[in-house]
Amino acid sequence: MLFPLSDDDRDLKRTAWVTILFIIINVGVFYYQTTHPEFTSGFSAIPKEILTNTDLVDPVPVQIGNKVVQIPQSPGPTPIFLTLFSAMFMHGSWMHLGSNMLFLWIFGDNVELRFGTLRFILFYVVSGLVASLTHVLFDPASIIPSLGASGAIAGVLGAYLVLYPRNRVNTLFIIKIISVPAWIVIGLWGAMQVFTMVNQQSGSGGGVAYSAHVGGLVAGLILGLAFRFIIEREPDSVLYRNYQKDDKVKQIW
Which of 1, 88, 113, 202 has the most CB atoms around its CB within 10 Å? Predict the structure, then answer.
């Protein structure tokens, strides 16, 4: 397994303020969650709530293995489908938050600077919503809360794959740090999400919403291609000038 640590943007001169802002918002929301558990149970995305337009407020018993577990529920926003938006800024643990923010920090700045501020905000939100809706459609009867920025960040990975397939990514492989093209890192990650999603649908796998990861990744690939055709000319940047000088690190276009 390749775990990304950084990418090759050492010559990038502009600051990706939206990416930084998203990281700050995610950290701030999680800190609020730690002291307000009812916020987590009320504002997470629950497939059954979304499809029935019903806000579940009482604990629901669920059979998990040989045990019956009470899933806590709390009042959510009105209308309830707003949880599709709120859930993409919430996390289940510090490790969940940390891994997501690392991926956003590594890959988000390049995509943001390629799209521009407003396009990147729209892209990020749409990717997150598509990811959440994909999870809802794959598990419509679930009352298990779904939360996390993973779907939106999967969209960022999809766009990065389209725009910067050969950009070098420093990754941890077992105990060694190696530098490999982005298409290998993101391609392997995407393949693992699809494989695990299929296993999950067949009855195995854990509680992670892999369908949301796949939905976000596909949304990122499609939107990345769409934005590429909307933006008629590549905007000037340090990355763009580097692409002109170095054939080994360039866009697919």
Answer: 88
